[in-house]
Amino acid sequence: MLSKKTKYAIKALVVLGKNRDKPPLQISWIAEQEKIPKKFLEQILLDLRNAGYLYSKKGAGGGYSLNKDPKDIYLVSILRITDGPIAMVPCASLNFYHRCDECHQEKTCGIRDVFIDVRDATLKILSETSIADIIARESNLIVSDDVPPAVNQPEN
């Protein structure tokens, strides 16, 4: 399950991406728009800034803005910054591997084998999906939501 920390990080990055051509956005404004607790958002944005994804400016007109193009910010990186491992079991993790305590034979473990496939499929999607892709999807969903439902024609 996606943690609130990761979900809030993605939401904040989407807002910043949509407002990329505007002055830096204040934390309180982002928090209010996305219904994110302000203190929690402060820590998330600080983590993203420290990872090089955001720029912050203090003082009047200060706030946060993207330090990278939204098309260059991939979900896989954001998940690793906010939550760590992508894999659901530690023995299937690429970057945070450690052997499961209860495992007798890792090479023949069916659970591990399945979750390596899950990890690989998840990594493929997350590595190919950027903040720009999410912004585009939202635009498409808004447009498709505006289309009136089809009217069924009576059969002859």
Automatic annotation (TrEMBL):
SUPFAM superfamilies: Winged helix' DNA-binding domain. It comes from the Bacteria. GO terms for molecular function: DNA binding; DNA-binding transcription factor activity. Signal peptide: none annotated. Keywords: DNA-binding. The keyword DNA-binding applies. One of its GO terms (cellular component) is cytosol. Gene3D superfamilies: Winged helix-like DNA-binding domain superfamily/Winged helix DNA-binding domain. Pfam families: Rrf2 (PF02082). This is BadM/Rrf2 family transcriptional regulator. It comes from Mucilaginibacter yixingensis. The lineage of its organism: Bacteria, Pseudomonadati, Bacteroidota, Sphingobacteriia, Sphingobacteriales.
